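2024-03-11 09:14:02 DEBUG pipeline.ingest accepted 1 chain
2024-03-11 09:14:02 DEBUG pipeline.ingest length=114
2024-03-11 09:14:03 DEBUG pipeline.predict start
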Amino acid sequence: QVPLVESGGGSVQAGDSLSLSCTTSDRSGIYDMGWYRQAPGKEREVVAIISWTGDRIIYADSVKGRFTISRDNTKRAVTLQMNRLKVEGTAKYHCCADTQPGSWGRGTQVTVSS
């Protein structure tokens, strides 16, 4: 496992944008990374995953066209740019890394109000 620290959450209105960042102190960086979210009373769901090289990206259907995931391996960081946020996007967003076993950050809260 590797340590992951998220930042950038907050409270916004529907239609606004937020950028989440995840950094790690691990220097190997050779693993896929991504973001999951969990809303109160709901199961955790994948938001976006990006490969180590950045050439393979997966988005949840619910965020396609609005969210963009990127990574900068020199900074050991993954960013999730979230545009046109919806109320249903309210959740705690967790950074993850595909290590063995998997690594998870503590999460950052995103609250979207109408």
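2024-03-11 09:14:41 DEBUG pipeline.report Residues 15 and 84 are 4 Å apart (CA to CA).
2024-03-11 09:14:41 DEBUG pipeline.predict end
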